[in-house]
Amino acid sequence: MPPRSWLFVPGDSDKKLGKAMATGAHAVIVDLEDSVAVAAKPQARAMARDWLAIHRQHVTENRPVARWVRINAIDTGLWREDLEVVMAGAPDGVMLPKCEGPEQLRMVAAEIYELEQRNRVANGATRILPLVSETATSALTIPSYVDVPMPRLAGLTWGAEDLSAVLGATRKRDAKGAWTDAFRFIRAQCLLTAHAKGVWAIDTLHDDFRDEAGTRRAAEAARGDGFTGMLAIHPDQVPIINTAFAPTEAELTEAQAIVALFAASPHAGTLQYNGRMVDQPHLRMAKQLLGIA
Fold first, then answer.
1. pTM of this prediction?
2. Percentage of the chain exceeding pLDDT 70
3. Which H or E element spans position 50?
4. ∠ at Cα 85 (34, 32), nearest 5°?
5. Which of 87, 92, 175, 225 could bond 115 through an S-S bridge, CB–CB 3.0 to 4.6 Å?
């Protein structure tokens, strides 16, 4: 089952790390990048490693909590030091920020392979989640992930803050609250490429964590558009995201009815349900929904 909520937690905050597993987040991302000052990064690496090791088998809401680490970008020169330390904690995955295409992902994958051997972690156990939008180059390389074999690729996600600074954009949304053209284009590319690749599509965060209604709208829109989960920057956003991505009772009831309808007529291509026609795409969506639930 794909993680619905992905919560960032600063890697140098013992207080916030200590509370992370009680938030209900399906995936916790210990951040070594933007939320940690350069001088604090060595300490953050060690804290991340220890936190990963302590919570190796943590379960909440009858499901394991995925333990991820966001390392520093390739161009910082810090990413190898990050991996050298945190891989001893056997993270479930590594988020790669400002990823400028499959070649950078392969570099990280090769380093992880060596560190898995050294730390007696099962080969291939550590997945990679690239942030594919934070520079103009990274945004333009999104479709290139489709045809490249990348067994460690867990999904694709994107963000708007860094790119807006790169572009010098004074706005990310229009007067009605919709993404402006560049960001809408990137979001669609991320979604389509993830589905073409058969990996998770994870929508970006809602940056005002005090705006519960805004977070709810963003999460509901993400699920409605076909994303499998969403990033969060504050624990208060987690239950909102989890609820938005959970199938409703009405949806489950309809999905069960459609599956039963086709089971009773296995050779039918199209059937009638509640006054409307349903066909094979409806059946696939129903099965997918029941599988997610």
1. 0.88
2. 98
3. helix 41-54
4. 10
5. 87
Q: Give the tens place of pLDDT for each residue, 245-266.
A: 988 777 777 778 888 888 888 8
Q: 251: exposed, middle or buried (C-beta count within 10 Å: 0-12, 13-18, 19+)?
A: middle
How far is the C-alpha of 103 from the C-alpha of 223, rounded, in Å?
30
CB neighbours (10 Å) of residue 238? 21
Q: Is 162 known to sit in a ligand binding site?
A: yes
Q: pLDDT band at 292, cuts 50/70/90? A: low
pLDDT for 190 beyond 60? yes
Q: Is 111 annotated as a binding residue?
A: no
Question: What gap in Å lies between CA 163 and CA 35, rounded to an integer?
Answer: 17
User: pLDDT tens across 175-184, in order?
Assistant: 988 999 999 9
Q: Are 262 and 268 in contact (CB under 8 A)?
A: yes
> What is the distance between the alpha carbons of residues 187 and 139, in angstroms, rounded to a whole number?
10
C-beta atoms surrounding 288 within 10 Å: 11
The structural domains of the chain, ordered by start, are: 5-245 (3.20.20.60), 249-290 (no CATH)
234 and 29 Cβ atoms separated by less than 8 Å: no
Q: Mind listing the pLDDT tens digit for each residue in 154-177?
A: 999 999 989 999 999 999 999 988
Give 181-185's long-range contacts (Cβ < 8 A, gap of 24+). Answer: 182/139
Cβ neighbours, 10 Å, residue 163: 21
Average pLDDT value over all residues in the chain: 92
Burial 272-282 (b: 16+ CB within 10 A, else e): eeeeeebeeeb
| Encoded amino acid at 157, one letter | T
User: What DSSP element (H or E) covers 60?
Assistant: strand 59-60
211, 28, 241, 188: CA torsion to nearest 10: 90
